[in-house]
Amino acid sequence: MAEEFEVRGLHEDRLDEAAEKEPTGMAGQLAVMTAILATVGAIFSYMAGATQADAGLFKNDAAIKKTEAANQWGLYQSKSGKQNMAELGFRLAVAAEKPFFEREMKRYEVEKSEILKAADKLDKQSEEFDVRSEGRMHQHHRWAQATTALQIAIAMAAIALLTKRRWLEKAVFLVSGIGLVVGFLAYLHV
Fold first, then answer.
1. Domain residues of the chain, as ranges?
2. What does the DSSP assignment read for 156-188?
3. The pTM is what?
């Protein structure tokens, strides 16, 4: 009857010693941390895209309102030209035709006043949309910064797992914290 004996070499003993010295739970801890960071990073990335889209829509609305205001200003200029023609007609007309030109001058003055109000209102709306767009772009940048920090932390976690460096694991937590803080600031519109 043959018995089998295991002959262990120095190499196997060293591998066992190294495995016993490995920080307990580091791999598991970093794996869970990486999964959480990836999930939160995906949410942050979505929010960055959504706020960028909102900023584009607000900028588009600002351009539309600015175009409408420009149309009103063109109409205002047209009415001013017609009013000037009526004033010239009033000065050059014979007495019997003066009342017609006087009514035309007054009519154009009233029309210009209404157009001026509409143009000013559209200009203000355009400015409001521009401000909203800038606010969303600022928020977009915050979400993007938070996402970037989390992506860096995930990459650092992979390196920490491969190198088994404790200080690098702590750096992962630090960079993750920075990313989460910046994400919270984005959520608060700061």
1. 27-187
2. HHHHHHHHT-HHHHHHHHHHHHHHHHHHHHHHT
3. 0.71
